[in-house]
Design goal:
The protein is mainly α. Helix content is 70%, strand content 2%. It contains 14 helices and two strands, in the order αααααααααααααββα. It has a two-stranded antiparallel sheet. A hairpin with a 2-residue loop joins strand 1 and strand 2 (214-215). Helix 1 (4-15) packs antiparallel against helix 2 (21-34) and helix 6 (83-96) runs parallel beside helix 8 (116-129). It is elongated. It starts with a helix and ends with a helix.
Length: 239
């Protein structure tokens, strides 16, 4: 007897062949939510759909499923003619987290002619791979001319962690773009290294730039509180 999940998979897979591209996009999205390895095969097929929105949604869905069986098709999708598809493919590879894609993501990150969102996604994905070979490229990307790429580098270093990441992020606290500074503060708060406190305190005193979630100074003050609370918790745990 066929299970309800199998019936749903068949229904959605059939919708991927619908003449209406919006129906195909919705089906690809739902297959991503479905989250089962059985959905990979039909999604891989529509990575070659004639409509770029369908291809982009298929790449995103494959990332949501997170199975290594989708690696090769997603690597091929990095060469798609549509920039949104390349962006979704780069992000999906990070969700899968296989270190074999490191070199390819580095190429995308360092390609100055590539769409900035694809480079952003590559930077963030490199961090998710957890490979120390990504440190130097990500630190270099903190100085990229694109603020979007710099933001992605901050996210990538947040995922990698460690003293080297903290040191590079502290230097980026004076970035010209407020969104990058917020991303850097968020990364430092997550890493929890107390060596970042003096620099964050400087931000509290000097950076009163308004953002959608309060001033940069206010965000830094919250980060300081989080770092100190984590440090106190560690002390209590040891005693």
């Amino acid at each position: 007897m066929e299970t309800q999940a199998n019936q749903e998979l068949k229904t959605l897979s059939k919708k991927l062949k619908n003449e209406n591209w919006e129906v195909r996009v919705a089906a690809a999205r739902e297959l991503g939510w479905f989250g089962e390895a059985e959905a990979i095969k039909p999604l891989v097929v529509v990575l070659k759909d004639k409509n770029s929105a369908v291809r982009a949604e298929a790449a995103k869905a494959l990332g949501s499923i997170g199975e290594k069986a989708a690696l090769e098709p997603l690597l091929l999708a990095l060469n798609d003619e549509d920039q949104e598809v390349r962006f979704r493919a780069a992000a999906a590879l990070g969700e899968i987290g296989d270190k074999r894609v490191l070199e390819t993501l580095l190429v995308v990150l360092q390609d100055k002619n590539e769409y900035f969102n694809a480079r952003f996604a590559s930077a963030a994905s490199l961090g998710k791979l957890g490979d120390i070979r990504a440190f130097e490229p990500l630190i270099g990307a903190l100085k990229d001319s694109s603020n979007t790429v710099r933001l992605g580098a901050a996210q990538g270093l947040k995922e990698l962690g460690g003293e080297q990441a903290t040191e590079a992020l502290v230097k980026a606290l004076k970035d010209a773009d407020k969104e990058v500074r917020i991303a850097v503060i968020d990364a430092l708060a997550k890493l929890g290294d107390e060596s970042a406190l003096p620099s964050l305190e400087w931000i509290v005193q000097n950076d009163h730039t308004d953002t959608w979630c309060g001033t940069v100074a206010k965000i830094a003050a919250q980060a300081i509180e989080n770092i100190r609370q984590r440090a106190e918790t560690k002390v209590l745990t040891k005693t």
